[in-house]
Hints:
The chain is an alpha+beta fold. Helices cover 31% and strands 15% of the residues. It comes from Meripilus lineatus.
Amino acid sequence: MSLQAAITKLQSPIKELVEGVTNSDQGSSTIAGKTEKDQAEVAGWIEKIAGGEVPKQDGLKDLDAQLTPKTYVVGNYLTAADVALYAALHPIFAQLQPAQYYTHPSLTRYFDHIQSGHSVRRSAESLSPAFQVVTFDFTSAPKIERKPDPPKQKKDKSSAAATPRESTPAPSNEKTPAKAKEESAKSAGAPEGAKTQKKEKKEKKGGNDGGKGKGGEKGAAAAEGSGEPVPSMIDLRVGHIIDIKVHPDADGLYVEQIDFGEETGPRTVVSGLVNYIPIDQMRDKYLVGVCNLKPANMRGVKSFAMVLCATHKDGKQAGIELVQPPPGSKIGERIYFEGAEFENAAPLTQLNPKKKIFETIQPGFTTLESKEAAWVNPATNSTHKIRTKDGVCVAPNFIGASLS
């Protein structure tokens, strides 16, 4: 079924809202879907909404789970399906109390994002009061605690031999009285030949895999953390700003909700960009996020990532802009550094602040004559562009900028 045929089945005022956004300059180009597959999905969603299949209040939990890893219901851009779904959800959300919408965080985030879109608001205002803005008390919402993976514990001799993922120093020959007593008890009655054979088996099992173990290159990531800092230790991903506000207690800070395609939903990120990038130029932007920094409190709000920006070579007052991933990038997509030694290396789960890995690497971040983002190795002067599998990240206007 075509989009127009599906829209005609919608009831008023949902139909008028969808038509208003579809016919607007901001919504006409991709509102029906960019591909034939997306177009079929958009029409399917609208047909379901027209038939009353979605949404129902008792089905919000399922819809919340469906939207957890998504910003939009089809593709990674606004379509008529989002407008229709928002309009159908409006009478439900207008009645919900905080205790109710707190239990559906992904759906609430989605609803608020769609209602805040310029084309949706412009069309909604012409149909007032049918689609008045629904306000949410996000400040009192239960906090989602994002805990980093626990640090790897040092393994004893037996576990290190069974899973040789990290290279460890040879054990000392010195023994405490308690350990000597324990080893004596364990070896009592065991023939000397059996102990020697057991030792040889351990050495064969643990000594020839180069420290990678079963995990291959990913298993080597932990061992990387103990060596010299390298760019591949930094976890860069494509993110999408789905909500942004000025920090309630700091006029120079933004508080953003950035979707990195994670099942836990968007991350809260605090950025000191208020005085450099207008809020309208931040909304709905795709960006590069540094995702394995240790979470930090910024004037009472915990920040779980960092937005990678380019600072003009003449300093902040000359301008700051977002580093942009290639067109068509997918939310959560991996961003890496060119070069055989970096491209297939796994980033660390979390950068150790004491080792200052990011601070050591960051001075080499720059933009080239082509405005492409790159890391220049200070030791070899080799250039390693920052990219996804489909293209290189760029600072739209700056050459020789510093990235941080």
